[in-house]
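Hello forum,

I keep getting stuck at the same step: I have a sequence, I want structure tokens, and every attempt I make locally crashes halfway through. Rather than fight my setup again tonight, could one of you with a working pipeline run this one for me? It's a single chain of 196 residues.
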Amino acid sequence: MIDPVMLGRHLHDLRAGRGLALSALARAAGVSVSMLSAIERGEKTPTVVVLSRIADGLGLSLSRLLADLETDRVIVRRAAEQDHVAEPGGWHRTVLTPVVPGVNFEWIRTTLPPRCDAGRFPAYAPGSHEFVVVESGTLCLGVGEAEYELTAGDSLYFPADATHSYANRGDDPCVYHVAALIMRPRENRVTPAREL
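Reply #2:
Ran it on my machine without issues. Output:
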């Protein structure tokens, strides 16, 4: 398990050793200054994607960034430690999985309010995969040029090396889970989240 305080100190030392201001690393990594600051203080445990971006910003591989920080093979992430992110457009996601060095896997629970479009997302590198299951409501999932309508209990797999999108065009909230094996961190969304 990676101790968030040790990780924060380690990141701070790496950043300071390179003579980078907090804002400079945040810009290079594509993360907010407030997020980076909270991680350095040990107040937030970053996702694999965020850690990969920080590693890129420091000019390191993720495995090199996390070398010597792993203290246990079993990692427990308590409910209170999960990252809850309120996105523009009113949708919400919770990262359920702990960060595991060298494993680019995330399990995310997302809630889309009625008539909410989460936007289009760029492709991951070849060899990436996403599994989606709908808990409640109706999800319109776009993969490339195709669109699939999924309702409660439906699931779908797609190779995540294609652009994809998530939208709720109904009048009820939609809750769905995404399990993603990602081969590299993804860039920002192609289009921002917006209301339909």
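The chain has a mean pLDDT of 85. If your local run keeps crashing, start a new thread with the error log.
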